[in-house]
Amino acid sequence: MTEAPTPAAAPAPAASATPAKPDPRYLALRNFAMSITVFNIFGYTLLGFEQPWLWPIVSVLFAYTVEMVFELISAWAQRRNARFLGNGVRGVYEFLLPAHITGTAMNMLFYGNNQLLPVLFGVFVGVAGKHAFQAPIAGRMRHFMNPSNFGITASLLAFGSWASIAPPYEFTENANTFFRVAIPLIIVTAGTVINSMLTKKVALIVGWLGGFVIQALLRHWIWDVAIFSALGPMSGVAFVLFTNYMITDPGTTPFKGRNQFMFGASVAMTYGVLMLFNVVYTLFFATSLVCLLRGLGWWAAHLIKRQRERSAAGAEPTARPTDVGNPQGPRAMVA
Prior knowledge:
single chain, mainly alpha, two-stranded antiparallel ribbon, two-stranded antiparallel sheet, 12 helices, 65% helix, globular
């Protein structure tokens, strides 16, 4: 008894000569999450963070929970699969990176005295705001409020009478003179690498820093503000952190270089205007206002475009009854 001949094996597809490059947004989120986690560990062990040790863990776990619950609700409402399902542990890990950043940043940059509720409130607003505040940007719905900054802003407005941003001294409280100089340099170096190679937000940082200097000079020349006071915030660790890790959020800032520059300069000028009205916590409020105006601008552009499309559709000539069934129109009938 002879064996049936086996069919010829199909040729294997040729392997790609160049492997696919990792998603730069994922790399930026991963490196940012790693760096802010390491900074928190150093903060609690070496620098002088005053929040309880358990709070960052609670904040991060709460951020994970809120993110997954709202994603399930959004998936049910939009009749799609949740983004963290179907891709194994790696998919869940990548999905939770933004929530990890929000929970860690909220606990690190906001100071609720001995109360955890303001911190968790900010985490909830920051994470849930990604699902609530969206606009049609570049053909798809995207969130436009910087999650960490928005959460801090909301908590300052709700609990500002007895809560505040983290006092700047705690970032270098237990450091000696050498490390007080080294800490900003380390933050600047790590942030520059992330923003230049991964998030590509150098133009935004240039616009922000240049605009900050300009608004300081204008306040000095026109309103007689002491130049050292106007430029003083740039020398602090909090400003360095804000510049490299807060204002450059990849998901809520423009992609094109010119638009990035304008975004950064707009935040700086808004900061200057708020300072004239003696508004405190100005960095966070200025960023939230610019993000809000940007989202409203996208909605206005979308509605104007839809209105124009409807007007153009209504202006199209309709076929007359005598032309129905005659593709050539009345000219063919005459012929």
